[in-house]
């Protein structure tokens, strides 16, 4: 009814998502599930819907203790999704002990997460721990 | 689609304002020359336009810098004026932050405030209001339309109760003025806050309506040259108030048509989303509701991740991640929304200039991305497997 300005090209201000977070969010790696009944698969589930963050991390381990496959599912914000996606990429090919050395601060640094989003990567770390304990 | 946050200027408002930004730049309080006289005339014209939208007398309209200032004046001004005899105020848990914060600062001054809870519908219980009124209550403040969930409070009934108990009634009508019919006499309203930039007017201006018959006394917050009947000193910004006046006049003309059109678009949005997606909840009473403010919770999907997906649509969420703290919206909490659904809520705003194409685009993207995010959600997976999420012992972190 009234003349509208054409939709402006939104340039992301520095405060918004880093390219890497957006990339992992739009093209997440390793979304899905592994067969949880299999003996080689460990499953960790952390967080609570009430907190707005729930992460499920699954890893498939061969006889030598090396992680051959990993899958994740996340209920959470863009940073949480990106953190989980990145973590599954990183753990593949590592042994379980090596994977445990990955710190949430490493993930936060790689994705350039602002301080307020640190907890998103933290819960990831917890999920990892739980996954190790299962098989 | 975030019109509750702010609205664009209606071109007719801009037209009305331009002369006062260019040639007619006089101070409306200058008594001695034509620059002042013409600015004053414009200011008084605007005052009449605002007054006629709400059924008030122009002498009852005071211009302010916005609804936040108006709320401050209403609450602190009334409370402080009557402080020798009355020390109690009543408000609700779903008010705008400026109202709640004003009350909090009054509590620090020694006043006592009752924050009424709301029902699941978002509407207050009138019996609870009646029970809460004490002999030393000076003011009841209840907003007309809620800015997060669009719920309409029973203003006329509240006005009736307050008038019969001789308590002043203030309403923050920022989201309601010019959108639904309001009359301060029929509804027995004593004070009302109005915001310019919610009704296609300029930012930085608003007004407060203060009843003259019977007179409501208010202690001024801002000291100075005594402008606006001593209630709000400071040069009145002529271009801005002209804009506010024009916005009110336009709103009065367009109210009926806008409401019909917005209702249809809202209906379209809600129906199309709900028929394509299961487990979507609308927050707030569907009947006593302003159609242009729709708050939906998409179960098993987190709000901020959905906003990120809908990146070419301007929306807002009641999710924690989008506010500075990790707490979800206090309004959603007050209506008893489950915490996980509170994290999953999105507010859709439909206004005078929202088009059908925009609504359809938003609906399509929303459906597409909710489906995608549910595929990525462990909660959705568990529900599909038949697990009752409420039975799980979640770990905190």
TrEMBL record, chain A:
Q: Which GO-annotated molecular functions does the record name?
A: iron ion binding; iron-sulfur cluster binding
Give every NIF system FeS cluster assembly NifU N-terminal domain span: 17-122
- Cross-referenced Pfam families, in alphabetical order? NifU_N
For this record, the Gene Ontology CC terms, alphabetical, are: mitochondrial [2Fe-2S] assembly complex
GO BP terms, alphabetized = [4Fe-4S] cluster assembly
> What keywords appear on the UniProt entry?
Iron, Metal-binding, Transit peptide
Matching entries from NCBIfam families are given as: iscU
UniProt record similarity statement: Belongs to the NifU family.
Role, per record: Mitochondrial scaffold protein, of the core iron-sulfur cluster (ISC) assembly complex, that provides the structural architecture on which the [2Fe-2S] clusters are assembled. The core iron-sulfur cluster (ISC) assembly complex is involved in the de novo synthesis of a [2Fe-2S] cluster, the first step of the mitochondrial iron-sulfur protein biogenesis. This process is initiated by the cysteine desulfurase complex (NFS1:LYRM4:NDUFAB1) that produces persulfide which is delivered on the scaffold protein ISCU in a FXN-dependent manner.
PANTHER family documented for this protein: IRON-SULFUR CLUSTER ASSEMBLY ENZYME NIFU HOMOLOG
- Name of this protein: Iron-sulfur cluster assembly enzyme ISCU
Q: Which organism is it from?
A: Colobus angolensis palliatus (Peters' Angolan colobus)
Organism taxonomic ancestry: Eukaryota, Metazoa, Chordata, Craniata, Vertebrata
UniProtKB/TrEMBL annotation, chain B:
Under the cellular component aspect of Gene Ontology, which terms does the record hold?
A: mitochondrial [2Fe-2S] assembly complex; nucleus
Kindly give the Pfam families that the UniProt entry links to this protein. Aminotran_5
Which GO biological-process labels does this protein carry?
[2Fe-2S] cluster assembly; [4Fe-4S] cluster assembly; Mo-molybdopterin cofactor biosynthetic process
Keywords for the protein's UniProt record, in alphabetical order: Iron, Iron-sulfur, Metal-binding, Molybdenum cofactor biosynthesis, Pyridoxal phosphate, Transferase
This enzyme's EC code(s): 2.8.1.7
InterPro entries named among the record's database cross-references: Aminotrans_V_dom (IPR000192), Aminotrans_V_PyrdxlP_BS (IPR020578), Cys_deSase_IscS (IPR010240), Cysteine_dSase (IPR016454), PyrdxlP-dep_Trfase (IPR015424), PyrdxlP-dep_Trfase_major (IPR015421), PyrdxlP-dep_Trfase_small (IPR015422)
PROSITE patterns, alphabetically? Answer: AA_TRANSFER_CLASS_5
Q: Which GO terms describe its molecular function?
A: cysteine desulfurase activity; iron-sulfur cluster binding; metal ion binding; pyridoxal phosphate binding
The catalysed reaction is: L-cysteinyl-[cysteine desulfurase] + L-cysteine = S-sulfanyl-L-cysteinyl-[cysteine desulfurase] + L-alanine
Q: Specify the Aminotransferase class V domain's residue ranges.
A: 2-361
Using the UniProt record, name the top-level EC class of this enzyme in a single word: transferase
Question: Which superkingdom, per the lineage?
Answer: Eukaryota
Instruction: Please give the cofactor(s) recorded in the UniProt entry for this protein.
Output: pyridoxal 5'-phosphate
Protein family (similarity comment): Belongs to the class-V pyridoxal-phosphate-dependent aminotransferase family. NifS/IscS subfamily.
Describe the function of this protein.
Answer: May catalyze the desulfuration of L-cysteine to L-alanine as component of the cysteine desulfurase complex (NFS1:LYRM4), leading to the formation of a cysteine persulfide intermediate. Acts as a sulfur donor for MOCS3 by transferring the sulfur of the cysteine persulfide intermediate on MOCS3.
Quaternary structure annotation from Swiss-Prot or TrEMBL: Monomer. Homodimer. Oligomer. Interacts with ISCU. Component of the cysteine desulfurase complex composed of NFS1 and LYRM4; this complex contributes to the activation of cysteine desulfurase activity. Interacts with MOCS3.
User: Under which name does UniProt file this protein?
Assistant: Cysteine desulfurase
What organism does this protein naturally occur in?
A: Colobus angolensis palliatus
């Amino acid at each position: 009814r009234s003349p509208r300005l054409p939709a402006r090209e939104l340039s992301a201000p520095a405060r918004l998502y880093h390219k890497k977070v957006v990339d992992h969010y739009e093209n997440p790696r390793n979304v899905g599930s592994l067969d949880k009944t299999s003996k080689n698969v460990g499953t960790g589930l952390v967080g609570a819907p009430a907190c707005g963050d729930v992460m499920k991390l699954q890893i498939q381990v061969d006889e030598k203790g090396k992680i051959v496959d990993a899958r994740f599912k996340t209920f959470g914000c863009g940073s949480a999704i990106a953190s989980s996606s990145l973590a599954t990429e990183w753990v593949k090919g590592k042994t379980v002990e090596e994977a445990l050395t990955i710190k949430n601060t490493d993930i936060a640094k790689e994705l350039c997460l602002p301080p307020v989003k640190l907890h998103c990567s933290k819960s990831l770390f917890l999920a990892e721990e739980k996954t190790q304990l299962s098989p | 689609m975030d019109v509750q946050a702010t609205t664009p200027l209606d071109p007719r408002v801009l037209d009305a304002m331009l002369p006062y930004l260019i040639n007619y730049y006089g101070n409306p309080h200058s008594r001695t020359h034509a620059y002042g006289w013409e600015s004053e005339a414009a200011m008084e014209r605007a005052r009449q336009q605002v007054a006629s939208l709400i059924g008030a007398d122009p002498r009852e309209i005071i211009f302010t810098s916005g609804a936040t200032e108006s709320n401050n004046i209403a609450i602190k001004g009334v409370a402080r004026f009557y402080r020798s005899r009355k020390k109690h105020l009543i408000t609700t848990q779903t008010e705008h932050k400026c109202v709640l914060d004003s009350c909090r600062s009054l509590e620090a001054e020694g006043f006592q405030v009752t924050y009424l809870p709301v029902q699941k519908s978002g509407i207050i219980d009138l019996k609870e209001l009646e029970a809460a009124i004490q002999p030393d209550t000076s003011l009841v403040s209840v907003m007309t339309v809620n800015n997060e969930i669009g719920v309409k409070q029973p203003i006329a009934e509240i006005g009736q109760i307050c008038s019969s108990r001789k308590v002043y009634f203030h309403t923050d009508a920022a989201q309601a003025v010019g959108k639904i019919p309001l009359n301060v006499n029929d509804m027995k309203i004593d004070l009302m806050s109005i915001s310019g930039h919610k009704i296609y007017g300029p930012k930085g201006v608003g007004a407060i309506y203060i009843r003259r018959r019977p007179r409501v006394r208010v202690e001024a917050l801002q000291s100075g040259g005594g402008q606006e009947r001593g209630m709000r000193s400071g040069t009145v910004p002529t271009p801005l108030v002209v804009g506010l006046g024009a916005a009110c006049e336009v709103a009065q003309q367009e109210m009926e048509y806008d409401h019909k059109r917005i209702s249809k678009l809202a209906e379209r949005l809600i129906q199309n989303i709900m028929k394509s997606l299961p487990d979507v909840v609308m927050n707030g009473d569907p009947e006593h509701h302003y159609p242009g403010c729709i708050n939906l919770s998409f179960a098993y999907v987190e709000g901020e991740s959905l906003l990120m997906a809908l990146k070419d649509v301007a929306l807002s969420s009641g999710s924690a991640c989008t506010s500075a703290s990790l707490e979800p919206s206090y309004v959603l909490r007050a209506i008893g929304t489950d915490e996980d659904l509170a994290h999953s809520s999105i507010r859709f705003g439909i206004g005078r200039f929202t088009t059908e194409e925009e609504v359809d685009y938003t609906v399509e993207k929303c459906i597409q991305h909710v489906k995608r995010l549910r595929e990525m959600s462990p909660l959705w997976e568990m529900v599909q497997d038949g697990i009752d999420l409420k039975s799980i012992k979640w770990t905190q972190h």
